[in-house]
Amino acid sequence: MNNKHTIDIEFDRKHIWHPYTSMIDPLPVYPAARTFENKIELETGETLIDGMASWWSAVHGYGHPEIIAAIKNQADTMSHVMFGGLTHQPAVELCKLLVELTPAPLNRVFLADGGSVSVEVAIKMAIQYWLSKGKKNKTQIMTAKKGYHGDTFAAMSVCDPVNSMHAMYQGFLPEQVFVDAPRSEFYGSQSQDELNALETAFAAHHEKVAAFIIEPIVQNAGGMNFYHPEYLKALRALCDKYEVLLIVDEIATGFGRTGKMFACEHADIAPDIMCVGKALTGGNMTLAATLTTEEVALGISQGEAKVLMHGPTFMGNPLACAAAVASLTILKRQETMANIERVTSALNALKRCLNLSAVVDVRVLGAIGVVEVERVVNVAKIQKFFIQQGVWIRPFGKLIYIMPPYITSNEDIETLIDAIYAAIEGEHF
Ligand SMILES: *Cc1c(COP(=O)(O)O)cnc(C)c1O
């Protein structure tokens, strides 16, 4: 234990932005000193059981020896080299794995440096594809409300208009076509009316629409909405019928999180374009990718521009690719998928929160558990309580949710659930 503060929290408070925080009245930040397995050790001595996997990313926990070895090894040889005119083993190996693991038609890979960038690239691909086909009017993107696709401008333009405060950027943000958020629940049945309304929107807008983008099965930051696989199936069929490309944003759901390698497998569909990120490197380095089909890739290159107009400086960063290769290698093992099933079973104990009057709903899918409460949670207050309980959970809105690393033991999941139960029961929110 180390009680000496070396992290200058006062400087941090005054000078450093954290995600979505005020510079006038920032939420408290806790000093993290070390991470290991499924634990976060604070500089103040507490060791916390991590319920967030650092926003969906640390699927194998922290400091996995195989991933750390891969990064160290790669650092000894080549940390980075430009991807323009050069290639390297970690990138090639990673892209082979991505082509192997994703649905069959996806076999062309663009390596991006973060999730939002991969969404920008997906949107560019779609617009450029139709341009090449001579369809110059297809410049809009269609999407469902309550979505989240990142914070850069094109990505933000397809996020939920209310949550991402579109009004603030009016005049600058491209205007997209929104349909209602999917509302038939994952474990319920699919409403035909909902699908009819979706088709009406396609019929009305398709001539101007290049692609429909959606988070498959789980709309995460927009409300942890688990929707019915039939919706996604219907969406695939409508995209085909109306000549619209389907982009699935698997940045949060990919790599086993929903109980399948990719969430679109719940609906047994393949998209035209897929974005992956977050868990790609097992939460060790920033890296994302946009995959597409031969049809779209060749289509783009047949166009006037001939090339896809994107190329980040750190494209295909060898350190990140090496981490991703190691992470995907672990993910492919039978024991990892078995672990996810075990975590699902353990998370089902969250259902006992339904006894509490403040709880509106409890839902579990794959390694995601969500407790929805009746009012917006006071994050600073509940987080203080959670830290006293030895857990790291960061709610948003009315949602207290966990998506722990797949290696989390049943005992640790029980501790996370106990803490959530106690927080709600004791009104610590
Ligand atoms: C996190 C996320 C993004 C953005 O990824 P960044 O790496 O934060 O830019 C996009 N889409 C979804 C579904 C996400 O969960």
UniProtKB/TrEMBL annotation:
The keyword Transferase applies. GO terms for cellular component: cytoplasm. Pyridoxal 5'-phosphate binds at G115, S116, D249, P312, T313. It is an enzyme of class 2 (transferase). Pfam families: Aminotran_3. Its EC number is 2.6.1.62. CDD domains: OAT_like (cd00610). Gene3D superfamilies: Aspartate Aminotransferase, domain 1, Type I PLP-dependent aspartate aminotransferase-like (Major domain). Substrate binds at W55, Y148, K278, G311, R394. Keywords: Aminotransferase, Biotin biosynthesis, Cytoplasm, Pyridoxal phosphate, S-adenosyl-L-methionine, Transferase. Its cofactor is pyridoxal 5'-phosphate. The modification N6-(pyridoxal phosphate)lysine is found at K278. Catalyzes the transfer of the alpha-amino group from S-adenosyl-L-methionine (SAM) to 7-keto-8-aminopelargonic acid (KAPA) to form 7,8-diaminopelargonic acid (DAPA). It is the only aminotransferase known to utilize SAM as an amino donor. Homodimer. This is Adenosylmethionine-8-amino-7-oxononanoate aminotransferase. The gene is bioA.
